[in-house]
Amino acid sequence: xxxVVARDASPQPAxxxxxxxxxxxxxxxxxxAYPFPWTHGIFRDCLQAGYPSxxxxxxxxIIGYGVVxxxxxxxxxxxxxxxxxxxxxxxxxxxLRALVRVARGHGAERMFLEVRPSNPNAIxxxxxxxxxxxxxxxxxxxAHEGREDAIVMAMELLDDDIDRMPAL
Length: 168
What we know:
The chain has helices at residues 23-33, 40-48, 91-105, 120-128, and strands at residues 14-17, 53-58, 61-71, 74-82, 110-115, 132-143, 146-156. It is built from four helices and seven strands. It is of the alpha+beta class. It has a seven-stranded mixed sheet with strand order 1-2-3-4-5-7-6, sandwiched between helices. It is 26% helix and 35% strand. It has one domain: Aminopeptidase (3-Layer(aba) Sandwich). 26% of the residues are buried.
């Protein structure tokens, strides 16, 4: 007798462009996910500036989002967030990969991001996806005890057939 492993038949969450009407839900997630959240105005300004901004949907519920700016052959991940109760299921990875695809589609040749040193899960994800640390921004983030540095990471956006940037 052979064993059959049951697989979760639930569909993968969908991605679609963020709309102004999404901002109340996005803000609710942002406030729960971060001790120093973005403001409604920052998200509104990103949408008005035309920054590619995406939401991840489980059914009709937003469970995550990502925002990237793209100019002069470079992309900058501004925000990637998954609702705290939805973390640990690969949603952040899917969002990040979607932002990379968008950046490539807009002709970006490299992608940058900043991350808090106190966020080891995000750092591990970014390393795993091919980002490498290229520097630090002193006192970049607000923190409960003053300011926290940012780790600056970058990835060359090579052809689509290359999954990761080789380690140096």
